[in-house]
Amino acid sequence: MGSSSRQGWRSVFKDVTQKWDVMTVEEQEKELSLLEEWTERVLEEWSDMHEACMTLRERQQQSSVLEKYPPYVSKGTALYDLEMFPEAAMQFDRELKMQPHMHHPLLHLYAIFANLYGGQRERCKEHCVYVLTTSVDRLVRYFTYMALGTLYMQEGEVEEALTSYEHASKLTFHPDVMYNLGMAYFLQHQYALAIPCFMEVIKDGEEDVDALYFLGCALCESGYVEEGCAKWLEAIQLCPPEKVLLTIGAKLEWYGFHQAAVHCFEQLLQSRQLRHLAKHGIAWNLALQDEREKAIHMLKELIAVPQIREDVRLSIEFLAHCWNDGNLRQLAASIERG
């Protein structure tokens, strides 16, 4: 991939910046609107993906601890397995009262996670404090700190979450705690600390799409752009969920790896929900590689798609400006008129 294609959005920003002072207010607003729209799209996809990943991580952590102890089966666990978490949390409280002096090691953990998933945050904290005050079991304390860290992350208290995850990491080594530590550092913009955490998750050949994605992000934010994009390409090979593919494609585009972005978006062309967005992404990256004929052909095909018609118009309008193409300006104007 040549150096000119790697410039990508950076060159677009540079072009806009150089012309900024001679633009009218209306032209400036149009340029800003387009750039902000693409930025927001990346951020929205990242937010959705992160929320989904964190939910799966929480469930994975809680279920894995069940293998370490004799099974605990009760009415509460039945409700829990049915994902009726508020009801399960109340039932676990009853079961705790019925066994005031001899609790199964998993009972408090069940209560903690039922309250966590059920949105009963204060009650979850109360259970966590009780366990950390009374239990000396390393694994029980580990998962209690993990739950507490997740709770603080949900509340946006990243510093408190970091403290909990650091306590957990001292009790036992597990990829989950390294991943969560990495995420906490990442959200604090401490990318140099996040990188070794994510590297630890994948160092033994662990096929972890989430860790690879955020490792790529942390590397890019630290200035190691080619290394970061290489991690995203590794993640693509693991057949990630569609929204993850879309996000990686947008990230590759942002950093100027347009051919890699095209490859990523091409994998979404069979998606019922995302195929039009993927086709738009392919067209835009072809345009950024100056493959004008292919790009315009694809954009024209997308004009008929109501969901992204306005996005397509903005793309055509922006390219008309960059290429000083009167025909594209007319096309964008005709789309706006409807």
Automatic annotation (TrEMBL):
Keywords: Repeat, TPR repeat
Top-level lineage group: Bacteria
InterPro entries: TPR-like_helical_dom_sf (IPR011990), TPR_rpt (IPR019734), Ycf3/AcsC/BcsC/TPR_MFPF (IPR051685)
A UniProt-annotated Pfam family: TPR_16
Gene3D superfamilies the record matches: Tetratricopeptide repeat domain
PROSITE patterns, per the entry: TPR
First and last residues of every TPR repeat: 142-175
Any coiled-coil regions, as ranges: none
SUPFAM superfamilies found in the cross-reference section: TPR-like
Protein name in the entry: BH1690 protein
Originating species: Halalkalibacterium halodurans (strain ATCC BAA-125 / DSM 18197 / FERM 7344 / JCM 9153 / C-125)
Organism taxonomic ancestry: Bacteria, Bacillati, Bacillota, Bacilli, Bacillales
